[in-house]
Design a protein that fits this description.
The chain is an alpha+beta fold. The protein is built from nine helices and five strands. It has a five-stranded mixed beta sheet with strand order 4-3-1-2-5.
Length: 219
């Protein structure tokens, strides 16, 4: 397959949604054209492909557009899943779906208000920090029972949640470190020190119309 016939992934390096999409693509061994986006100056090609113009967006060679991070993860891993990230039983699928739903629907709004209180007319984010800590305590308890949210090895649930837990932790690292979450802290440290995370977070220049394709993963 020529580079020009590869899927196109519009992404932003620090966005947790885009991060988990890139992680799944990387784990699957799928190759895409990566286009780093400047969110304050979104390229016309992104807006044309997806009027919502939020990352990640994946444009397939046949013109199909996949606009949600979880859908991109499933697209990549259902194509190839050499590391066994997808759940393999109905019970595991239900657990994974429940954790991701709780993260995206309940935890993410708390994270936004904790990290960016001024955007929501709040004096500070301490109340939302406390509410978010309830979810993180639950994750720590999960990780006391098994080394990963997926089970015995890293998987879909870990990948979908880790970028958001990382963002919460980095909002006030001293506070996070002081919490009694040894299993969660170890899990997050292992994620951040992994080669997969390092590769996923490599910095790239913003894409401009006419640029040569940037193939991801870089081999």
């Amino acid at each position: 397959m020529s580079t020009l016939s590869l899927p196109v992934l519009y992404t932003f390096r620090r966005c947790p949604y885009a991060m988990r999409a890139r992680l799944a693509i990387l784990a699957s061994g799928t190759r895409v054209q990566l286009r780093e986006v400047v969110l304050r100056n979104k390229p016309a090609a992104l807006i044309e492909a997806s009027p919502k113009a939020t990352v990640p967006v994946l444009v397939l060679p046949d013109g199909e557009v996949i606009e949600q991070s979880l859908d991109i993860m499933h697209w990549a891993l259902r194509s190839q899943d050499p590391w066994g990230w997808l759940p393999t039983t109905p019970q595991a699928e239900q657990k994974t779906a429940a954790l991701i739903h709780q993260c995206d629907v309940d935890f993410k709004p708390l994270l936004d208000r904790y990290k960016y209180p001024n955007r929501f007319g709040l004096a500070d984010g301490l109340v939302h920090q406390a509410h978010g800590a309830v979810f993180l305590t639950q994750l720590d308890q999960h990780l006391n029972d098994s080394p990963f949210l997926h089970g015995l090895h890293w998987g879909m649930a870990d990948t979908a949640l880790a970028p958001f837990v990382r963002q919460f932790a980095h909002t006030d690292k001293a506070w996070f470190t002081a919490q009694n979450w040894p299993a969660l802290a170890q899990w997050l440290q292992a994620f951040e020190s992994s080669e997969t995370f390092t590769h996923c977070m490599e910095a790239h220049a913003p894409w401009l119309e006419g640029d040569a394709p940037l193939i991801f993963p870089i081999q």
